[in-house]
Each structure stands twice: as C-alpha cells, then as structure tokens.
Write a structure and sequence with these properties.
By secondary structure, the protein is an alpha+beta fold. 23% of the residues lie in helices and 13% in strands. The relative contact order is 0.16. Strands 7-5-6-8-9 form a 5-stranded mixed beta sheet, covered by helices on one side. The chain has a two-stranded antiparallel sheet with strand order 1-2. The protein contains 4 helices and 9 strands; from the N terminus they run H-E-E-H-H-E-E-E-E-E-E-E-H. The protein has one domain. Keywords: Membrane, Transmembrane, Transmembrane helix. InterPro entries: DUF1559, N_methyl_site, Pilin-like. Pfam families: N_methyl, SBP_bac_10.
C-alpha cells in the first residue's frame, strides 16, 4: 500500500533573519532590564549608607552621654611644646574614638594604644583595619589606599613620613565653612565653626543653632579624595582633610577643593545631624542654607533644603 506524505506538515528551522530579530529583541529587553537592576542595587546601597550614618549618630550620642561631649575632631599635639598643633601627634580622629560604641571595642583593645602616635609600629595592623560601618557600599574604591607624603610646614617636624597604606572611610566630620588656613590652624587655634576640630570637644549646649539644624558628619566619595577613620597622619598629604571637611562649596561641586563633601548617589549626599537623624542634600542646595546647616552657632535663619 502506498502512503502519501504530501499532506503532512514539515518543521522549518529559523532563518538567519528570524534569529537576528530574536537576538535583537533579547538585547532590547536586557537593555531595559539592566538599568532597573542597577537602580535597585544602588537604592539598596544608598539605604545601607544611610543606616551607617544612623549608627554613627547613635554612637556619638552614647559617647556624649558617657563623656559629656563629642570626641575632638582629632587629637594632636606639638612635638616640642606639647600644645595643640594641627599636624602633630598622636593624631587619632573622632571616628577612632567611637569604635567601642560601634561594637568595635576589640579593635581598640587588641590593636590601638591611643597614647602612642598613629605611625608607631604597634599600629601597623590598626592602620589597615577596615571598619564596615565607616564604608559606604556605593563607593567603588578599594577598602585601603596609599596615603602619600605632603608639603611639610617649617620647621619640618615630620620629615620622616613615608607613603602608608591605610583603611578608607566615607564619613568625615564637619569642620565648618571656613578653610583651615583661615581658621588659625597653622598657629594652633584651628577652631572651625562646625562641630569637629582640633583638640576640642563639643557639647550639645555648644550647638546653639539646635541639634536638628546642625550637620556634624557628611559623606565623602573616594573619587574626590580618599579619607580614613584613623586620624591625622603627621607628614601626609592634606592630613587633617582626611578626617574632617569644609563645606566651602556644594556637595559634588566640580569647583570645590577635593576635601569637601561628596557621594556617588544619584540624588545627593547624606549628612548626619547632631540629633542623630540623616538628611539627603542636593547638589543644588542654596549656599546660604547649606552654610547655615554646617555651622553650630551662626544663628542663621534658613528655609527648606
């Protein structure tokens, strides 16, 4: 018996054109999906970054409750006179003082002697210790960086400084709105109009603008300038600017000196207020408002930001 298959259906393979169309459609879908995924990831990173600052705020309040004030911006004395000196020793910064209040007491107990300079050999491990709470996930830089030597003051007390590997941090104290050179730092005063400065501990009562109206800590991205939680390294480049910042220009401003405030967030830069809350500040913030928020006792009046 003869069977005819003329009425059957034959399965055709994809033509090259059809295959290319499918690939193009997949490419378009991936192109649409990737920005959404990246946006969601950055939103999660930004939330973690904000939570880090809230933890820092809580630690500052616990420190204040215990010692009746915030930690000094950095602890630094002249090697000869023993008086406050912005590029002296031991150099430990405000963030190093908060470690026991961030469940990092073991770092202090095992790796740090606050009576000895940062550059003492016993601190070789401490200098490279990365504290997760001090790192913003949006910052893509490596967890450590090399801190190079800088121009030396005269007389040169720190000639022996050599490039040093240190742990990064993305949160720096608010020195105020006046540059350090204009705030008397070379002469020893070094008193900014913000909250963190040389050898001086601010109390709540010193913040007369109000705790909810005063920024005390802000973000800094490593692309602008790497910073550290450790302190001021005598002899290093821009040493005080690694732990505190001056709000001379708006966050992320291209015209700013490197050691101001910055972030990689698309919507702005986080700032911690003295009351423990966190605000996101736009790059377009009014400068009068911005400066009012970065001073502790200016008695300024400002609107929304």
């Amino acid at each position: 018996m003869h069977h005819s298959f003329s009425g059957g259906h034959r399965r055709h393979a994809f033509t090259l054109v059809e295959l290319l169309v499918v690939i193009a459609i997949i490419g378009i879908l991936v192109g649409l999906l990737l920005p959404a995924v990246q946006s969601a990831r950055e939103a999660a990173r930004q939330t973690q970054c904000k939570n880090n600052m809230k933890q820092i705020g809580l630690a500052l309040h616990m420190y204040h409750d215990t010692l009746r004030g915030f930690p000094p911006g950095w602890m630094s004395r002249h090697p000869d006179t023993g008086k406050a000196y912005w590029l002296g020793r031991p150099g430990w910064a405000w963030a190093s003082q908060l470690l026991p209040y961030l469940e990092q007491g073991n770092v202090v107990d095992n790796r740090i002697d606050f009576e000895k300079p940062i550059l003492d050999d016993i601190h070789s491990e401490a200098r490279k210790t990365v504290i997760a709470t001090y790192v913003c996930p949006s910052d893509a830089a490596a967890p450590t960086f090399v801190l190079p030597p800088g121009p030396m003051p005269r007389p040169n007390y720190n000639a022996g400084y050599q490039s040093t590997l240190v742990a990064k941090a993305n949160y720096v104290g608010v020195f105020g709105t006046v540059r350090m050179l204009d705030a008397g730092c070379p002469k020893g005063d070094c008193e900014g109009n913000g909250t963190f400065m040389l050898e001086r501990s601010m109390r709540f009562r010193d913040i007369t603008d109000g705790l909810s109206n005063t920024f005390v800590v802000g973000e800094r991205n490593s692309r602008y300038s790497p910073s550290t939680w450790i302190g001021v390294f005598a002899g290093a480049a821009h040493a005080p600017g690694r732990v505190v910042a001056v709000a001379e220009n708006p966050p992320n401003s291209n015209t700013s000196p490197a050691f101001t405030f910055s972030s990689d967030h698309p919507a702005g830069t986080h700032f911690l207020k003295a009351d423990g809350s966190v605000a996101l500040v736009s790059e377009q913030i009014d400068m009068q408002t911005y400066h009012a928020l970065c001073t502790r006792s200016g008695r300024e009046v400002f609107g929304e930001y």
